[in-house]
Amino acid sequence: MCNAVRLRDDFTASEVRALAKSSKDSAQVRRLLSIGAIYDGLNRNDAARIGSMDRQTLCDWVHRFNDDGPDGLTDRWAGGPKPRLSAAQKKELSRIVKAGPDLDKDGVVRWRCLDLKKVIRDRFGVDYHERTVGKILKELGFSHVSARPQHPRQDPAVIEDFKKNSPVPWRQRQLICRRKRLSRFGSRMKPGSARRTALFTSGHKKERDLANQRISATKTPICSVPSALRVVSVPRW
Description:
Layout: H1 13-22, H2 26-39, H3 44-50, H4 55-68, H5 87-99, H6 103-106, H7 113-124, H8 130-139, H9 156-165, H10 170-183, H11 191-216, H12 225-232
């Protein structure tokens, strides 16, 4: 069995534990505690168990500690592969997207990721996936869907002439449409229902007038005495 890797001599167990106490990286804290246990003379297997690792992993971290000190015990993330488009090429691509496509040359009125993929392949010799083109556009500050500011075949003179000859101004058309939408919820009553309401009201008025007449009527008898006697003298059948 090979001998264990020796630790550097410019640190002590107490100093390593003090660094672990002040660190905010949990992974670095575990590794420092394992190395502090080695400084105390603990077995490498038990020291590795303190940092939740095996003996071989602890050996690798010991090499890192000997080379770079406590800073070597942090995770080092690689920057990833080198970008295939340079900064100048990305700047040129941004200019192309802002300028918009040429209908006669490109055959489209608005850039899509599929169209830009062909442009990048033809101009820069880089064949990206369509999804990767969308990521590059997001990195350059473009949204997923951006409207073209003006159609390439629009004629400003025709637009102004249409605005001048329009019978109703644009703002007035907006108000008319809004009133039509509101009229669906609060429309007027139909003529038939209005007539029924008028008849119903007139009937109540007649009954009220009759009641007033009854209240204001005199207490004189309705018929005279001779007529009443004539009514009483009618023979029974």
